[in-house]
Amino acid sequence: xxxxxxxxxxxxxxxxxxxxxxxxxxxxVINENCxxxxxxxxxxxxxxxxxxxxxCTCNVGFAGQRCECxxxxxxxxxxxxxxxxxxxxxxxxxxxxxxVCECFQRTNPEEVISGQYCECDxxxxxxxxxxxxxxxxxxxxxxxxxxxxxxxxxxEIPRVRINTLF
Length: 166
Description:
The protein is mostly beta strands. It is built from 1 helix and 16 strands.
């Protein structure tokens, strides 16, 4: 049986923007069996960081998983990734990168998290008879949008068509 050692190193950096100070922890998994040589100014790190064993270490003034942000943009990005000041960053359903929320992907590819702040999804609507939107609608941002043949909060009420002969 082959074994290997994985170490976790936790770093942090502090970015000051006017009177606001943000401390961002960086967790980097270091695989001691990685035999790759570090690549300075790698394209994988937007040419402003060193690529080492699948991770970027950004040069001073740059941040992000792939060093795609300037540190000042990254520091102000938290403001852009919250719908309101007191709300969670990207609704705790995504990561903030350069002021834009990148929503997490679910294990089920049919289930999608979306929205500017990752506040929406297509799977958390109410169920009726065990079916999302009673099988007569689609879920958008927590609301069932019913097909023409149904109505109600969960598309549980059939619409009755009245035929007239006029």
